[in-house]
Fold:
Amino acid sequence: MKKLLILIPVLFVIACRQKAPVETKNVIRGSKDAHSFARPSEAIVKHLDLDIKVDFENKLISGKASWLIDNLSKGNQIVFDTRNLEIRRVTLGDDETETTYSLGNDNKFMGRSLNIKIAAGTSKVNIYYTNSADAAAVQWLNPQQTAGKKYPFMFTQSQAILARTWIPCQDSPGIRFTYNATVAVPQELLAVMSANNPQAKNSKGVYTFSQKQAIPSYLMALAVGDIAFKAVDHRTGVYAEPVTLQKAAYELADMGKMTNAAEKIYGPYKWGRYDVLILPPSFPFGGMENPMLTFATPTIIAGDRSLVSLIAHELAHSWSGNLVTNATWNDFWLNEGFTTYFERRIVEDVYGKDEARMQELLGYQGLQELVKEMGAKNEDTKLKANFDGRDPDEGVSDIAYEKGYSFLRTIEEAVGRKKFDSFLRSYFDSHAFNSVTTEEFLAYLDSNLIRGDKEILSKINIDAWVYQPGLPANSPAVGSEKFRALDTQIAQWQSSGDISVLSKRLSTNESLYLISHLPENITLKQMAGLDTVFNFTQSGNSEIQAAWYTLAVRKNYKPATQNIEKFLTQVGRRKFLMPLYKEMVKTPEGKEWAKKIYAKARPNYHSVAYNSIDEVLK
Structure:
């Protein structure tokens, strides 16, 4: 999932052959996932056959989830995760023998356990259910909330532990399963999932799907709407609302280079097709790496392909996250730190070191600011997290992304890139379609790369990176020639007052660097001068808008007021919303303004976004 800042212009693709389906290899662990009620050491799921109907009028998903299971303990119970699901009945086997079940006590963010009575030889459990109209994973949009304004739209966002709000499941990233699905929708709409997908509507409004690779529940995804498809090449394409499709296809038009670079570094893409779905604006993240179909924000459509590097991140997840997955949400850095590292390697290969170094430096400076804000001794700045007793989505920050990236860069510098690449290739190959804990990764690192070498161990300093808060002293050096040149120009402008010393043509990276490195005492006159030269207030680039508008709120720069209100009501990406609302509430006037905008904007936000903003404005 893309939550952090990704700024450089890159294009992506996935290109490879479909591999034979692999057998589900769930690892039974001694320690229980603190965010799941499931007891996989006793009975664990292997495959899902999902048969559901999407009811837009009542905002409900209902049907049957048939699970093939392995009753490892030969016991009399299997436990699933649910949250606000109505369980209508449960049966066992193909002959649908009725069985009894009970629901556990309700937990605010974990929901309730579904405890089903089974027999020693039970291999199939059928759960008939309906979710609630306000299921946290699901957003229902009326026609006016879509780009086309003609038909409703719905989509799911299952990460981190929201799959249980629309499917009864064992909702842990350490539990993997294959799935087939049959989904009935209104005839004028198309359904797509994290699986093999149709490329056109049919007259019946019934669609079938197959995911032959074992995935964890957080990668279950469904979207239904007035969706059209446009091929990019014979293996990749774009889904979007018809009015958005041409712009989206243009933005993602040159996708081969990215996949070729990725496969060259870490081996073949193992998922068959790769497509991208551009969602309506309320999607709360930059992207979500749902297998075979990345869900992406429309904020990447800038018209000049300057923001689609976000997709490089989701492409990288096809290896780190989807192929090899964090076993628990306390190990989240294994997904995001690896993906951030891989993304920047792809960027360097395709677009050169300057682009990669700019992205690296912006990321590291953001990490420094985050650690300063959180506090260097804050337990949440450790890579090995402890989100027990909390909603993991609320606990996650850019620590997993950027500190994880810096840790891997430290290893690379200690052993050399060639050795590190060989190690990572073997890591992905040997752990493919499995979930891994931090400790398992570190054991593999020691056995296959460090091999007890005390000098390398000293250079890396694993304990400080993984188990201690803050930033270790051996953080890798980062720098950018382009940013150093911009530093010189900023200093000349400040000393001379002559704005013409600034380059008139700045890339997205350089614009963001400039905005983030303006002096604290910048005057409104100077901001107006910058706005005249670079047109930041009227920018069509969402990254630049978010950075400039946050500064405008801080400095009470009135020319941006109307655009800020428009931005907050039209964009649902949490990464952009949170800094703006946090800045607004710092003054009584700003907080009143924020609440006024939020009253109008909140219905357009996904629960992942508005739950966070509710806390800021309370």
Summary: The chain has three domains: 34-223, 324-466, 506-617. The domain at 34-223 is CATH 2.60.40.1730 (Immunoglobulin-like).
